[in-house]
């Protein structure tokens, strides 16, 4: 009995010791893991106090999947305590999973969402936390409206990319390049309105130039249409202000100034002069060049642009325009632009431009293939360009396709495309022939996929229209 | 032996079981605690992934003490990996602990830093995290440039405060009220410039009205000075646009329109119509009123304003102005304004307005006491007003003191104050007599303390000037 009792105790002890070992190891390992976890957290969230709630809110909004066809934003409509999904063009339903088959593909506006996946991949380095008391003043501590840190980052970026010389240039920030375009026209116009300046651009041109000049209706200038018409007008009484857009919106050509002379002043719109879209043959070194993050990082909604200006007086006048107009650019926007550009600066822009260039190349390949089955439409032709950034000669991959309807009877090209359920922007918007249509290639993947699928049907004649 | 062996086993087993119990309980409790901890953290930082680093960066910048006489910002200059302190006006040194005794007190600009401590007290609820891919598009999903959530919050706020009727009104956002002032002038001016509108305001008036109208030099309007001069001008050929600022900048009076009639259009600048500064006798119900967060929450640097507009056509024209000028207001700013206003909405604005009113009352008491020892200077007199928000009759506490130099020989008052090391804004800036000076009372505590101390010396004659 005693032996059997002893052996029962023995077995129980062995079991109990094993259990102890199990518990002990578990406890030790668990505690180590917990400690390790918390010490890892020191760097990132160990000491968080007031910012944790905002961070959790943002992550919660970002965690809404929306089936990959939309996104929930922190400031979107809230239903049942959750921000609702905002769906891509042809998707619907509470989680954007519903494809709307009769919907038109949107290739109209220049929404640069092709870069959205890049920022989702760089969520950590691009996030920014704005404290409730962040920069409440009208001005920075040097009494300007402009962050010197951001200014120096912009100079560094241009030098890394090699697309603009910033030495000897002043910098003015604007609420998007939109504000700077008119600030530049205003700064280059005479004070004395007896000889107003004539504002011109080469057809096809971005409509905002004309729209702004006509709408604001300043006594110092007036819009006078096509630059080419002024080529031989030597005896003009006033100054001429020429807009040069390079790469051009809509057709992507690396335009050059048409007009030259002592009474000609040139505004270079360089919104698209980045390696996503074009070769960078050399850094530009112009009297007045305007840039924006809209087509560089894709943050059109942030409204941030900047101008490089050689002349001190023109700089002062543009600066004054922005001051009287809006008292500078939002400090919240400047903070965010700084954070985004830091991501670019870190590797000299290599990653974002490779991402953008690859994406645009793929899209152009698909578009060309789709269009190759028909002679009904043609695409603009742009010669290959040397790119000092990628150190190779490359095919340009402009932001927009400039499509021409080639059939005699297809005089109004946008009507043809609209009938085939494709939204674009007709040639007349750019003061050009209605045979042309601008199709945006920089929108979301969904928008581009829809576009290709609509174009395929149109090109193959499936939509009912006969192709050549 | 067997018994003794058995009893040893028995003792060991008891010990082992006790150990098991200990380990088991420990493990269970530990895990529960860990689970509890993590479930508590779900609300604040449990699931943080990509936002933790940004949050830690922001908290680290905010943790710089700067001796209570400055602040370090996330986007400030960085030295040795830490953002440097930006000191208040009369402070210097790396940690802002150095008082600069010969420095002039700054009571010039209207920087609304008196509200900064409020936001530091509400750090958690007012912080906002902006994801790298937040609202990259040009427009919201309803194709507007304006957040509907923010619009509805503004309507709610006006209704809670009781300072404006928003039913039947359209809302346009602007890059600060600055942009909206000119957008309103433009919208109310005729398209046909053969009869340009005359823009007027009552002296003393905010200089930006004149500055904008003259600088943008639109063919549709021109600035024509004092409204009073137009009172009896019945046979004017064009329209008249009158700016009415209530409470007025600089003197705080609740101005009313001077001009009336079928050809008169009125723009009400309501930047200061909040319970910090004035009684709210009743909600205004005007054709066109302009507001801003600059003097409401104190976020002048964010550049966010809005207009309440009755007429559909005027609304469309102002909306178009903002669109052509800047393509709307930064989405980053709209997100932040939403977060800040949510803090106000939560308790109907009670806390912020009590904070602001108390602060302004204290400052006015100190100012009056300081000025009471001399007859050399006088302050504007504003009658007590009924305040429906605080439900009492109260003394107004305007944002600015409108100081008059009473001595015959003190014709240029700002010169007198500058000599006493006080920066303010001379009467001529507001098109008024140089006997007046505007002193800002809404700046930081340091600026206000410096002002009082300089005024004390001036009033008591210690600065060398003889007082009456």
UniProtKB/TrEMBL annotation, chains A, B:
Transmembrane segments: 6-29
Keyword ATP-binding included in the entry's annotation: no
Alphabetical list of Pfam families matching this protein: Alliinase_C, EGF_alliinase
Limits of the Alliinase EGF-like domain: 49-103
Transferase as UniProt keyword: yes
Cofactor(s) this protein cannot do without: pyridoxal 5'-phosphate
Family, per entry: Belongs to the alliinase family.
Protein name: Tryptophan aminotransferase-related protein 3-like
Provenance organism: Rhodamnia argentea
């Amino acid at each position: 009995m005693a032996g059997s009792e002893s052996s029962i105790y023995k077995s129980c002890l062995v079991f109990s010791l094993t259990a102890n070992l199990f518990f002990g190891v578990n406890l030790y390992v668990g505690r180590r893991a917990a400690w390790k976890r918390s010490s890892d957290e020191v760097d990132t969230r160990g000491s968080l106090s007031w910012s944790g709630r905002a961070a959790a809110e943002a992550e919660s909004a970002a965690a809404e999947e929306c089936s990959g066809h939309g996104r929930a934003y922190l400031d979107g409509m809230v239903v049942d305590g959750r921000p609702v999904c905002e769906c891509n063009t042809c998707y619907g339903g509470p989680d954007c999973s519903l494809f709307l088959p009769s919907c038109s593909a949107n290739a109209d506006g220049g929404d640069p969402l092709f870069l959205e996946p890049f920022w989702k991949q760089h969520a950590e380095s691009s996030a920014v936390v704005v404290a409730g008391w962040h920069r409440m003043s009208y001005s920075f501590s040097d009494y300007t409206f402009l962050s010197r840190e951001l200014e120096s980052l912009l100079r560094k970026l241009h030098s890394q990319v090699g697309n603009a010389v910033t030495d000897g240039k002043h910098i003015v920030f604007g609420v998007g390049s939109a504000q700077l375009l008119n600030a530049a026209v205003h700064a280059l116009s005479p004070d004395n309105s007896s000889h107003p300046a004539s504002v011109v651009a080469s057809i096809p041109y971005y409509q905002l130039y004309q729209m702004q000049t006509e709408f604001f209706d300043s006594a110092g200038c007036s819009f006078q249409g096509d630059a080419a018409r002024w080529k031989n007008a030597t005896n003009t009484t006033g100054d001429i202000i020429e807009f040069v857009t390079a790469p051009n919106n809509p057709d992507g050509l690396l335009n050059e100034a048409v007009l030259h002379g002592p009474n000609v002043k040139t505004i270079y719109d360089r919104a698209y002069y980045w390696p996503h879209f074009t070769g960078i043959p050399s850094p530009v070194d112009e009297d007045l060049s305007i840039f924006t993050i809209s087509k560089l990082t894709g943050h059109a909604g942030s409204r941030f642009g900047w101008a490089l200006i050689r002349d001190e007086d023109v700089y002062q006048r543009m600066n004054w325009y922005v001051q009287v107009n809006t008292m500078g650019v939002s400090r919240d926007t400047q903070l965010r632009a700084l954070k985004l550009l830091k991501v670019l600066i870190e590797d000299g822009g290599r990653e974002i431009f490779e991402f953008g260039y690859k994406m645009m190349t793929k899209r152009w390949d698909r578009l060309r293939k789709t269009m190759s089955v028909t002679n009904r439409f043609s695409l603009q032709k742009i010669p290959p360009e040397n790119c000092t950034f990628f150190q190779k000669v490359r095919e340009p991959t402009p932001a927009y396709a400039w499509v021409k309807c080639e059939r005699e009877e297809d005089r109004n090209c946008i009507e043809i495309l609209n009938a085939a359920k494709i939204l674009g922007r007709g040639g007349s918007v750019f003061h050009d022939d209605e045979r042309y249509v601008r199709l945006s290639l920089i929108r979301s993947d969904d928008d581009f996929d829809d576009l290709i699928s609509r174009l395929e049907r149109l090109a193959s004649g499936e939509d009912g229209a006969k192709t050549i």
